[in-house]
Amino acid sequence: MSELSDVLALSDPADGVTRGHLTPGWLIGGAINGGILMALGAKAMAQAVSAGGGQRDVVAFSAYFLSASEPGPVELRPDVLRVGRNFSTAQVSVLQDVAGSPVERVRMLGTVADLAATSEPVHRQQPPPSMPPPDECIPTSMAPKELVGSIAILQRLDIRIDPATAGFGMGAPSGEGELRGWLRTVDDHVPDAAMLPFVLDAFPPVSFDLGAMGWAPTIEFSGHVRAVPAPGWLQIRLTTTNVSGGLLEEDCVVWDSTGRVVAQSRQLAGVRMPSAPPA
């Protein structure tokens, strides 16, 4: 079993509650990556709907992050709001115990369906961007050791950045607001639908390409899971077009190794821009 499978494992529901465990390997600074929490929340919603005779795949979700998560036990409380013939709706609260009291980390709302029915036929889709293959892209392992060491998640992911969008790593961001690259886990976790909410939030923030190298906290996140990915590398493109008042939107599209769109998202995030735009 891969490390990603381990951290996304959930107990069988008991009294409407399911439990997991967040390990330090998925930290970014002092907090667990938000994508891990979204993947857990999506899984809990799907399990709750499926247990009631409904569908089994989360195809759309929104998430609000209420407090920073830390390594340790996590509790998920899903609530099925509606079960329909083709689509069902659920919500989930993700909580951790802090000093003996439950503290909510994330609140999610999701639509649950069957990907086998919603992923075919394909009438139109966005083609993947033209970019070099993974072996010709820049791995995040080339980042300064002190950076890699302080971001534990980078030791579990094999991320390769398209050289055309990697200028931020050399102090020369393009200012175009775009990052492109490839992603897989270092232990070759076979891509599946359950990991896609995590993948949508696994790349460095697009604000890096604007010269804003600090934390970009998520205000709101909306994601869509479009298909089960094929084995192999996942290709990712992040873009932003509107930056104002300390906020930006980050759009993400994920393609699998066949060029199929398998997930997409938009998040509103906070950003601290440099005093002057990059030259």
List the helices and strands and how they pair.
Layout: H1 3-7, E1 18-22, E2 27-28, E3 31-32, H2 34-51, E4 57-65, E5 72-82, E6 88-98, E7 101-113, H3 115-118, E8 138-139, H4 145-150, E9 157-161, E10 178-185, H5 196-199, E11 218-225, E12 234-239, E13 243-244, E14 247-255, E15 261-270
Antiparallel strand pairs: 1-5, 2-3, 4-7, 4-11, 5-6, 6-7, 8-9, 9-10, 10-12, 11-15, 12-14, 13-14, 14-15
In brief:
The chain is mainly beta. It contains 5 helices and 15 strands.
CATH superfamily of the largest domain: Acyl-CoA thioesterase, double hotdog domain
Count of helix runs = 5
Fill in the CATH topology of the largest domain: Porin
Mean pLDDT: 94
Highest-level CATH class of the largest domain: Mainly Beta
Shape estimate: globular
Q: Give the strand tally.
A: 15
Annotated CATH architecture of the largest domain: Beta Barrel
Helix content: 10-25%
Biggest β-sheet description: 13 strands, antiparallel
* Low-pLDDT windows of residues: none
Radius of gyration: 18 Å
Distance between the termini: 46 Å
Would you list the SSEs in sequence order as H and E?
Answer: HEEEHEEEEHEHEEHEEEEE
Number of domains: 2
Q: How would you explain this protein's 3D organization?
A:
- Residues 134-270 form the Acyl-CoA thioesterase-like C-terminal domain.
- This is TesB-like acyl-CoA thioesterase 3.
- By secondary structure, the protein is mainly beta.
- It folds into two domains: 3-115, Hotdog Thioesterase (Thiol Ester Dehydrase, Chain A, Roll), CATH 3.10.129; 134-270, Porin, CATH 2.40.160.
- The chain is built from five helices and 15 strands.
- Strands 1, 4, 5, 6, 7, 8, 9, 10, 11, 12, 13, 14 and 15 form a 13-stranded antiparallel β-sheet that branches.
- The protein is globular.
- The chain starts with a helix and ends in a 9-residue tail after the last strand.
